[in-house]
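Please fill in the sequence for the structure shown.

STRUCTURE ENCODING:
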């Protein structure tokens, strides 16, 4: 369902598919889904790199056009606060200004 949600919004052949998801789960990566008022509004993957660092990636948030109390920033904050200790890395393409803004709000340093 999350893959279809992404593909309904954005055309990007490089995004994960069901086979990638299965491999990630088998590698003990975690998948988080933002859910509000019976609708999925976003998701992200979290991979533990070592004992003190993590990679958060494939972050997606759908603009629903409806009022909700939680958004992408809230979802990522929850994931980071409750599932990580140490350094968190995220790769964001330069064109993706919305994601850059979300990570800036969370206090990430850009380099």
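FILLED IN BY: designer on duty
SEQUENCE:
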């Amino acid at each position: 369902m999350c893959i279809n949600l992404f593909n309904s919004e954005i055309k990007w052949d490089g995004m994960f598919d069901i086979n990638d998801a299965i491999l990630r789960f088998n590698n003990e990566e975690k998948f988080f889904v933002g859910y509000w008022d019976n609708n999925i509004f976003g998701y992200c993957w979290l991979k533990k790199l070592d004992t003190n660092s993590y990679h958060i990636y494939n972050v997606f948030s759908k603009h629903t056009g409806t009022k909700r109390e939680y958004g992408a920033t809230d979802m990522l904050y929850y994931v980071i606060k409750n599932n990580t200790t140490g350094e968190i890395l995220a790769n964001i393409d330069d064109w993706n200004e919305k994601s850059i803004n979300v990570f800036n709000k969370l206090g990430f340093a850009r380099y």
